[in-house]
Amino acid sequence: MDNNPLPHIIECADCEGSVKPKERLVSLLDQIEVHVEQLRKDAWRLEEERDTLLTTLDTLRNNEMLGKLEETDRDDVLRYAERLSMRCLTVDILVKIQRDQIQQEALHQVNGLIDSLIVGLRDDPTTTRLRCASFMNACSSHGYGHSDKNFESAILGCTLDDQKRVKKRLQGLLDYIDKMHTIQLL
């Protein structure tokens, strides 16, 4: 079994005489492009997996059950969670997205709006959830509810790749808020 599967580029030996050199090269480049796109998708999936782990660890660190533990047990759990977070952060995955200056500024604005959600989460989870949902609605062409016009204007200035990632990030934040609410009800 091959432990290091590399993409296989298939050249047609019988086609050498019937296919022009440029067409053969373009065909090879097309095959490589498929592999490059798969590599990007795999890297994004791994990045999302790492972010999910970090979010879960953060949820555990902010869980009300910690308050019910004795101080030494709480410290042990927090140190363990911190150690796992630090290990998780040693995994650095980067897929660069090409952006022009306008797209870079739009992404910065979107990230600032999402950061404001996270800051407001502790003080007012209900309002934060509603605002997060309005951001999600701004990302969707279906318009299932109220959408935040400022967020919509900012997200439309981002690249398509950024729009997809922001939508996933917002969905993750909504899921986190819902989990937090569920844990608090227990």
Description:
Helix 1 (21-61) packs antiparallel against helix 2 (71-89), helix 3 (101-121) runs antiparallel to helix 5 and helix 4 runs antiparallel to helix 6. The protein has 186 residues and is an all-alpha fold. The longest helix is centred in the first third of the chain and has 41 residues, at 21-61. The chain is built from six helices and no strands. It has a domain at 99-186: Methane Monooxygenase Hydroxylase, Chain G, domain 1. The mean pLDDT is 85.
CATH architecture classification of the domain at 99-186: Up-down Bundle
CA-based shape: flat
Number of strands: 0
Question: SSE string, helix = H, strand = E?
Answer: HHHHHH
Let me know the largest β-sheet. none
CATH topology (level 3) name of the domain at 99-186: Methane Monooxygenase Hydroxylase, Chain G, domain 1
Query: Which assembly state applies to the chains in this document?
Result: single chain
- Class per helix and strand makeup: mainly alpha
Termini gap? 48 Å
How would you summarize the topology of this molecule?
Layout: H1 21-61, H2 71-89, H3 101-121, H4 125-139, H5 149-156, H6 160-185
Helix pairs in contact: 1-2, 1-6, 3-4, 3-5, 3-6, 4-6
Describe the structure using short key phrases.
6 helices, mainly alpha, 186 residues
